[in-house]
UniProtKB/TrEMBL annotation:
The keyword Lyase does not apply. The lineage of its organism: Bacteria, Pseudomonadati, Pseudomonadota, Alphaproteobacteria, Hyphomonadales. NCBIfam families: glycerol-3-phosphate 1-O-acyltransferase PlsY (TIGR00023). This is Glycerol-3-phosphate acyltransferase. Its EC number is 2.3.1.275. Belongs to the PlsY family. Pathway: Lipid metabolism; phospholipid metabolism. Keywords: Acyltransferase, Cell membrane, Lipid biosynthesis, Lipid metabolism, Membrane, Phospholipid biosynthesis, Phospholipid metabolism, Transferase, Transmembrane, Transmembrane helix. It is found in: Cell membrane. The gene is plsY. It comes from Henriciella pelagia. InterPro entries: G3P_acylTferase_PlsY (IPR003811).
Amino acid sequence: MTYLPYIVAAVGGYLLGSIPFGLILTRAAGLGDIRQIGSGNIGATNVLRTGRKDLAFATLILDSFKAGLAVLFFTFAFASRNVGLIAGAAAFLGHCYPVWLGFKGGKGVATYAGLLTFASLKGLMVGGPVWLGMFLLFRISSLAALTAAAIVPIGAYLLGETHFAVGVLAALSLLVFWTHRANLQRLLKGTEPKFGEKKKPAETE
């Protein structure tokens, strides 16, 4: 068994995932450096803090699709779903730790959702409703993301997903918890803001 396709997919997926669409869009719109706003994150949630819902939505779609594109391209290029999964996982890593930005990127939720959409519909069938239900119930984005991330690999396994895919999803879910560690601390303290609420100026991630 050759590992070259997996190495190529990992490198290609990482570079694709490293494209900081949130930063590019906000700079193009004349809003400055998104890393100097709110949490300093380059993801759609922080872009929304600029007041530009259109840019936040565009960031959400683009951040999601870069993982999906990595999955599709490398799955068909090497005729292997597993290679596509590795490419999507690498895109997730690229989004969270982009080489162009000193390895300081987003938290990976939108990118994870894009991977599930194109690589594991069984995972999406579980994670999507859980995220939506938790968000509508509590209006806390991080809580919805963490709950969905926790349940995705378990639900995918119960629905008959392959062991390889479940392993990849489990690893990514753990990384979601890592990138949300500051949010998790605030959740435990009861200080995590709800959607639409502003953080205190002194708070940093």
